[in-house]
Design goal:
It contains 3 helices and 4 strands; from the N terminus they run βαββαβα. By secondary structure, the chain is α+β, with helices and mostly antiparallel strands.
């Protein structure tokens, strides 16, 4: 499965509104997990089995709790049993489709 998530503290006290230190703490947990992952400007996506992926999401969320009294967590999951390598496989298939001539007209 793939799980894309965004976790951020709420109600903390950074004067500039930045949450990069808290996000770094979460991403560090993800990268240390050893699971395939990718981080972009909005989400971190992790690939693995249910229990291992959600254990990482929980640990990342707990790491962010140290930065404020509340935590916002947004999740999106693509559950496809028996599939692996989809973190890059989905993007590879998209890129191949973009390179092919379109039949749409």
């Amino acid at each position: 499965m793939l799980v894309a998530f965004s976790v951020s503290p709420m109600g903390g006290d950074p004067s500039d509104g930045s949450v990069h230190e808290a996000v770094a703490a979460a991403v560090r947990i993800v990268r240390d997990s050893g699971l395939p992952n990718r981080t972009d400007s909005m989400f971190t996506t992790v690939e693995g089995e249910w229990d291992e992926v959600f254990a990482v999401v929980k640990a990342a969320t707990l790491a962010v709790q140290a930065f404020g009294p509340r935590v916002s967590l947004v999740l999106k999951a693509d559950v496809r049993p028996e599939r692996t390598g989809e973190l890059s496989g989905k993007v590879d298939r998209l890129e191949a489709a973009l390179e092919s001539p379109s039949d749409a007209g």
